[in-house]
Each structure stands twice: as C-alpha cells, then as structure tokens.
Amino acid sequence: MFNLNPFSSSFFQLYILQLDEYDIFRFLKKLPKVKMGKKLIKSLVWTTKTKLIYLLSLLQILLISWLVANLNLIFFAVILFISLQLFFVPLTLSVLILFPIDYILKKIIISKAKSKIKKLNNLKIIAIAGSYGKTTFKEILFTILSEKYRVLKTPDSINTAIGISRLILSSLNNQYDIFIVEMGEYYKGDIKKLCTITPPDISVVTGINEAHFERLKSLTNTVSTIFEVVENSKEDSVIVLNADDKLIIENYKDYIKNKNIIMYGLQNSNVELKAKDINFNEDTLTFKFNLNENNKLIDSLNINIIAEYAIADLIGVIQVARKLEIPWPIIKLGIKKIKPVPHRLAPKYDREKDIVFIDDTYNTNPEGVKEAINLLSKFKSRRKIYITPGMAETGIMNRKIHLDIAVKLSKVVDLVILIKTSSSLFIYEGLKNNKYSEDKIIFFDSIHDVYNNLNTITKPNDVVLFQNIWPENYV
Known about the structure:
The protein is 45% helix and 18% strand. By secondary structure, the protein is α/β, with parallel strands linked by helices. The chain is globular.
C-alpha cells in the first residue's frame, strides 16, 4: 500500500476504494492486506464522484498539514508525505461527507429513469438474472433479436440501479423496441429494486450457485434474491429458466405463480427444443449440432463459440425470439453472426506459435470453472495449461469449492499455473491430495509475472486457458 511516491500511494488507495464500489467497510477491511504492484490489473476511472472524493481528501490533508506545521515548510512537507501514505483516512471521511449528496442525486436519477420507462409504452423489457451465464445469454439474445428489432442492452459493467438508470436517461428512447437488462446482485433486494426501474416483460434466470456467497451468506438467500426477477416481473410476463440448473428446478415452483414458462438446457429431458449430436471441432474452434423439436429435426447448426453452455443459451434465446415473432430464417441469420463473448471462453489461435489461448478471465463462478475444464478436456491432441488465481467472494465455501476444482483439474490438465492468493492455495492443496505431480504446478505472484514468463513455459501444440483475474481489492 505504501510507496516512496506519496501521490502514487494515494491514487492506489483511491483505486481500491473504487473497486470496492465506495463501500468503506469492505475498503477498510481489505486495505491492510492489499499489496501495491508495479502495474494495476484494472485502471482507476476518474468519474465525477472519484474526482470529488479525491479533491476533498486532498484538501483535508493540505489544511491539516499546514495547520500542524505552523508555517514550517519542511515540517509541512513531512506531514504531507505521511498523510498521503495514510490517504485512506481522508478518503473515508470524504465518502461520509459526500454520502447525503450522493444518496439524493442517485434517488433523483433513479426516479427520472422510472418516469422515462413508464412513458415508453411500446418498449419490451427483458431482464436477465443469475449467479452465472448472464452475459453470454445477453450477448446471444442481443445478436439474434437485432435481426428484426432495434435493441438496447446494458454494457458489461452496468448492472446496478444507478448504472442502469444513467443508461436509460442517456441512451434509451422511443426508437428502441427492446431493452435487455442484465441485473446484478450482491444483497437481498438488489434485483427487486432493479425491477422497480425496469419491470420485465420477459425474465430469464440463467443459473444459481455460490457466486457472491461472501455477501449473500447462504444459497437460500441467493435463490430468493435471484428469483426476485420472477416475482417482480409483470403479471403477463414470460419466465425463461435454465432447466440444467439443479437449484432452479428445485425452487422455481415457489416463485412462478401462474406465469408462462419456457425451459431451456442440454441435459434436461423435459425441454421441447433440444441440441442433438453435439460435436466440437478443435481445429476450427466451433460446435456443430442438430436442433430438434419434439424429436423432429429443425436444422443443423454451427456456432462460433467454444463454450458448450452457449448452445443451451442459444436454445433459450431461440424460444424467446419465437415469442417475439421472429421467423426461423431471420433467427438463423442471427445465429451465423454470433461471436465469442470477450473474456468468457474467448479463443485466440496463434498460428505462428501453434498455440490456442482461451481468455476466461471474467469467469468468477464454480459452474463456469467446471465448463472451462470440460472444454479443455475436448482438446485431445494438445498439451493443456490452466492458469488461475482461483475465485473470490466464495465466503465459507472457499476451501470446498477450490478443492473440488482441484479434483477436476487433476484429471484433465497437464500443467497448472497458480497465482498466489488465498484461494489458489486450496487448489494446490487439492492437487496434492489427488496425487498430482508438484512438477506440474507453478506459482507466480501476479498475472503480470505470468505474462512475462509465458514464452518460456509454452510450446507449440499447447492450449492455454486463463481462468479468472483478481483485481487488487482481493487477496
């Protein structure tokens, strides 16, 4: 946290505060454990709020340093240097000072967004909630619906009440037919709040697991929080559910009432629309499959995504597209335009080196890890390398989740590269428990060290998967 350049130290502490979304309790709890690296994983974004917090904090320490120094410039410089190193103190005070103004401004923005939505009478709202799979479903849905309709979707980083409200005010207008809203959840009531802003005509639940367990505390809380998207949808809404997810199937009847349900998936035999004869081509990095409805062949399809779960998402999207009266030839045009979702099992083939790199750095949940390891197992002719810091925010489930990951890795992967974190140590423990050779495990202090050494580790005919990435506010 400390640095000889005091302004670097102050910027870094502000950066950690921003990563923790200005939650001062999480910020103060984590800050003593955080190490300041040579290069940041992400970048400090100088929003209006960030600038105000920084300037107010800087003003505090300048005033205090000047008063304490009593016109002694050397003493003033020493106090200023120390204060910048301990910048978390004025940062905390600044957040508290600005909280009332911030709260009122957010309320005004959200209220304006609600009013604007109410005036857009012809707008269809599709809400997507879940512990995992939201972004992939959203991107496939956007691609296919855009073949017929004018569609606005929330960008990757926008899934909170204030973020969605700002997007509504800045970008949504009566020229759009459909608004696709990805809804994030950290605490109970989060999704209910989002539904008051954008009441769904169609609600999608993609999956439920231990993601954000640290804040939601239990799977019971997670289930009820995610199903808020169903409970708070419109009376005549359509509910789209991932039938492959055990927790969805076990719980959905408690929430749906009499609403119209669509089920999608690859493994559940009760879904009407099914993918059959699924084949992965490791040379072209594509999936081919037959699409059947009630055991009748509809079409044979290729999809340019290497995540098998994306086939299930596509089946769900096709059913939504049908509900919105998009004919099959137009749906098929959209399918041909589907591309890998950035940072979610997104492949890149380096032909010169003959190495396949797979970027799964935005995957932060156990189900996604399972799918990533399953994907690696499909590469029969390549050496398989898996790089990870583990997962954050898994709470009391942390050790169990990572021991389970280690079991799967030990059966599939040829080389495991671990970035030193509290979670990756449990993967190491699990690998040893499963008799995985220590010669096939490499530790690095940071992802930047991995990048710097990757050329000495990889060789032709490798497939390298980067699983998850930890910003500096996790240790």
